[in-house]
Design goal:
196 residues; mainly alpha; three-stranded antiparallel β-sheet
Amino acid sequence: MSSEQTAWKIYAGLSARDRRAVDAWRDLGNDMVTSLLNSDALRSDAPRRLPSDDTAEWQRRTLGTDKDLVVQRTAEHEAAHVIVARALGVRVVEVSIAEDGRSAATTYEETSREATAVIAAAASEWLHGFRALAFPNGDESGCRDDMRKLVHATSADSYAMDQARRRARLILGERRGEVLELAQQLARTRRLEFES
């Protein structure tokens, strides 16, 4: 049995309070073993540690200036677009991150306005919803461009925009692991091409 499998087995036996502490560390992109150790959930004599208890780490994430953190945020932003597009049956051609680590693009085939709206909503839903603890300052510049696409695809209809956000959130919730896995690949390689 691998250490990751053992960690998951231990996690399953934890109390709800301890699982919440471990989940807070996993939300930052840590594997299960690291999350168990960081949370102190394995120690009965210690209080549980949360990422927000580590003020230096929290400040680093809030400022958003650490290069590795910037690349990870950008990779997750783009991965959210890719995973949602693929879930909608839209063929993704490529995704890439520029040298600065902040600029990126996901290229996909032309699709319906409805699908375009859901794809555009994906990154904001991911970063401001699922990953708000990992990236407390969000990704305003990248999400601003997506907001323009969302507004254009829905003709600024607030109901249609809410529906697109809701659908993106549902897809991302079902495919959370896929987003994180693809983001890790993208952060490493900076460019991925997809077969048709």
